[in-house]
Amino acid sequence: MKAIILAAGYGTRFNRDLQNDTSGVFKHLYGIPKPLLPVGNQALISHWMAAIDKINCIDAVFVITNDLYYVKFEDWAKEFRLVKVLNDGTRSNEERLGAIACLQLVITQFNINDNVLVLGGDTLFYEDFSLSGVLAQFAELQKINCDSNLVLSYRCKDEAETTKFGILEIDEKFQVTAFKEKPSSTETTSRRACPCFYIYSKSTIPLIAKFLQEKQNSPLEEKDAPGNFLCWVHSRKPVFVHHVCGRFDVGNLPSYIDCTRYFQKC
Questions:
Q1: Fewer Cβ neighbours under 10 Å: the N or C end of the chain?
Q2: Residues 36 and 94: beta-carbon distance below 8 Å
Q3: Model pTM?
Q4: Which segments of 68-155 does DSSP mark as H helices, in order?
Q5: Helices (H), the chain
């Protein structure tokens, strides 16, 4: 299995919050890509490497970033044997390729023909999360049907949160039947949010290129949010759900503060 960490964002909201913060406490973080922000005693993305290092089935980790932050990630990666960093060639948020196009760029560049773990470089999970447990469930699903894919979900704290996240609908077998991007609470009875953490089977990976081909003339937003591919693929390949208690999505300064406080206690 290969792991791909999506880290090509520009942290627009986060840097705007830092500029507007009058306390001055966080000014030293300006210009640091979100995956490299300090969380506890290490960079956010290093928490993932600590978990991956304990997993024998993951034999390569690809981090895709942009030209603005490429050198920073290259410096970070020097201490990790499995990591290769790829530059998407963009220099600004306006030039960004979109998460799904970045994913395909890694697959093409490294000729990946394997099961793939895809995760957002600005995301961490609560202490109940077990990477080995998730991979064990994926292995069991693969024994039944090698086309099977696995994603995470957690319950929204309240109805208002459905408008902030991608929401999964599932059946009695925990198979995804629908994916709704930031729906109102009246559009679905489901409260299962879906973070950027997907395990796609080897047979699903070629469909990413097909998705992008179909969307080549669509707005960037349709190729950016990684959940849009999940929305498209669940009717073509079986996708199942693994439940977790919650996650931290470091999109702005308040969410970063919450994340650092949590991991300082752990």
A1: C
A2: no
A3: 0.95
A4: 70-77, 99-109, 131-144
A5: 12-20, 44-52, 70-77, 99-109, 131-144, 206-214, 221-224, 227-233, 253-265
